[in-house]
Amino acid sequence: MCTVCGCGISSIEGHKHEEGGHGHSHDHHHDHDHDDHHHGDGGHDHHHAADCSMHYGNGIAGVNVPGMRQERIIQVERHILSKNDAYAQENRRYFERQGIFALNFVSSPGSGKTSLLVRAISDLKDRLTISVIEGDQQTSNDAARIRETGARAIQINTGKGCHLDAHMVGHAAEDLALEPGSALFIENVGNLVCPAAFDLGEAHKVVVLSVTEGEDKPLKYPNMFAAADLMVLNKADLLPHLDFNVGLCIANALRVNPRLQTLTVSARTGEGMEAFYAWLEASAAHQAA
Amino acid sequence: MHEMSLMESVIEIVCDTARQNGAIRVKSVRLDVGVLSHVEPDALMFCYEAVRHGTIADEATLEINRIAGEGWCLDCGKTVALEERFGACPDCGRHRVQMTAGDELKIRDMEVS
Questions:
Q1: Angle A200-A204-A205 (CA atoms, 0-180°, nearest 5)?
Q2: Which residues contact A261 (CB under 8 A, 6 or more apart)?
Q3: Which of A50, A75, A193 is closest, CB to CB, to B109?
Q4: CA trace torsion A188, A194, A195, A200 (10° rounding)
Q5: Per-residue pLDDT averaged across B52-60, rounded?
Q6: Residue among B2, B5, B105 minimizing CB distance to A79
Q7: Cα end-to-end distance, chain B, whole Å
Q8: pTM
Q9: pLDDT of residue B38
Q10: Nearest CA of chain B to the CA of A76: how many Å?
């Protein structure tokens, strides 16, 4: 069972899984460094396995008698997300080799991520090739909206899943046949909790917050704002009609993540979007350097 | 509910590791989960019950070892207890505290036979 990509419950548009197995045409290499082993400090012998260590004589019975069975304790010492992180590293290496600038857009549902992407793709048409991976539980509506701009887009339906993971993104990126030197926008499932934990191999997480949400969202969902490098405050055109305090919202975000960069934009009117494009081009150039 | 994905990952790593070590059953699994991490232990427990069925760990008990939050206060120049991820230093009240513990999310060890 592929528990990372959740094959069987999730589907990548246009991507076929062979019955009972993986018909993927690329390999994921699972090379992990295991320099975080901890060995017991007793003077007993211990035997090493490839990715963990076994301590005979360190088990429940505390003795090591030849020929006598005992329960064994296996030191695992692995991060629970280590498999996802290995896929993410592989994606990152691939993106860097190809000079692809990948961004992972995260937000709550309805913050205007897709509108922001559609606007950016249209405005940057002559400056940058952008492809999109869309993550949603159901429907391919968002990918269809992106394709109307002429950009390549692929939809991942996560089924019951609440986030994209690095394995899904690796396959989707492969299916998109990304152009070297282009940009890849990954629009994560609308959810301010779970996607924070899953590295996809992106250069930066961009958290989109709209002014119709509360100023205290960064404090309520700190993990996401801590994981992001840029916060885009969207729907600024609605500010005259709301009691939203932009300064307070940014202050809250900076409390959670002092390194966070912030921009205020309206994807509808285009206000502030040039600043976002400048950030995008500067960050892409920084990665290429 | 990313706890479900996390527990699927735990079961996968545990079963692979057990097989690599020639074990036929997993009897217990111990996790280190920091109090400041993004997961809920009760949800982990609930998901664990659901995902272990049909594996060599289907009777394994799960123990979640909670790791307390700690941070280094830049102003006090010492390690202090941290109640929330971006909480203030309990001594000086300032927010210049860098988290040093409490974010763990790790499979520590397991007992096999």
A1: 75
A2: A229, A230, A231, A279
A3: A75
A4: -120
A5: 93
A6: B105
A7: 32
A8: 0.79
A9: 83
A10: 5
